[in-house]
Amino acid sequence: MKTSFDVFNGDADGICALLQLRLATPKDSVLITGVKRDIALLKQVDPAVAQDVTVLDVAMEKNRAALDNLLTQGVRVFYADHHNPGEVPDHPSLTTHINTAANTCTSLIVDKLLDGRYREWALVGAYGDNMIATADTLAKKSGLCDQDRVKLMQFGTYLNYNGYGSSLSDLLFPPAEIYRLMAAYPSPFNFIAERPDVYATLEDGFTGDSEKAAAITPYSERTGSRVFMLPDEAWARRISGVYSNDLTNRDPEVANAVITAKADGNYLVSIRAPLKNRVGADELAAAFPTGGGRKAAAGINALPAELLNDFIDAFHQRYPLTT
């Protein structure tokens, strides 16, 4: 018997994009997701049993071979994303909604498709993906008060924080589990009110890990760019991405790279372009093995130790201070 699959990134954007879609069009589907940086997800779909596949916030370029295999075998694919897709195949079974603009994300792409039907979930995803200015503007247009906007921004931050780690064991909640916990709620405010236990776990974890990160000083610093080094510990892996966003928000003219040591001797890298020059992070990351992402924010999953200094030099050269 054929079945449906929902394939989505395990961060706030991927989860909230799927929440909107399934609230609008409920479907009994198999969930495929993982930690935020686990993006080679489409290969987990068995084309022999797949009837249709929905893919959200997962870079097409990194999943092209698996996508071609599904399409060749007659599987219908709906694809919404904001990462660089590479060459998009022209196939009658493929529906795409891809926008790589630096001020959007998958949750906002889905929000437009649904005419804002589940706007509050879209805002959680956008805030979590550090689309603060865009989300603020949309929230104000939607009539949300400042207190509600702050609550959605906090929730998005906590949800995004939960997606980071080298494995599911690093996370407070596996992404598929937290998606299922939230799936029945048409608004994040309903979820926060009815599941304070889950919200408190996310908030407490984020607060504790943030306090540890606040003690970190720059590993390398030049005018216009800073590099921070985090240890090979679970708290550091969890906080790395949100910490990168926080550094960027604090000083919009400075680029930041947060490098986290890994047990195998390689490094995990989060790259954030300056808010005032949200370009180049994807190209810089792609110049190194296992690197990729989007213009404003990108990463390298396993930077070899022997390339560490090369990356730091390239990062500083890519982001001199501009006025």
Task: Please describe the structure with a list of short key phrases separated by commas or semicolons.
2 domains, 5-stranded parallel beta sheet, inorganic pyrophosphatase (n-terminal core), 6-stranded mixed beta sheet, 323 residues, 12 helices, 11 strands, alpha/beta, DHH_sf, Diaminopimelate Epimerase, Chain A, domain 1, single chain
Describe what you observe in this structure.
The protein has 323 residues and is an alpha/beta fold. It folds into 2 domains: 3-205, inorganic pyrophosphatase (n-terminal core) (Alpha-Beta Complex), CATH 3.90.1640; 216-318, Roll (Diaminopimelate Epimerase, Chain A, domain 1). The chain contains 12 helices and 11 strands. The protein has helices at 12-24, 64-72, 106-113, 119-128, 132-141, 146-162, 175-182, 188-194, 196-213, 234-250, 281-286, 308-318; strands at residues 3-8, 29-32, 50-56, 76-81, 94-98, 220-222, 225-230, 255-261, 267-272, 291-293, 297-303. The chain has a 6-stranded mixed sheet with strand order 6-7-8-9-11-10, sandwiched between helices. The chain is globular.
Topology, pairings included?
Blueprint: E1 3-8, H1 12-24, E2 29-32, E3 50-56, H2 64-72, E4 76-81, E5 94-98, H3 106-113, H4 119-128, H5 132-141, H6 146-162, H7 175-182, H8 188-194, H9 196-213, E6 220-222, E7 225-230, H10 234-250, E8 255-261, E9 267-272, H11 281-286, E10 291-293, E11 297-303, H12 308-318
Helix pairs in contact: 1-3, 1-4, 3-4, 4-5, 4-6, 6-9, 6-10, 9-10
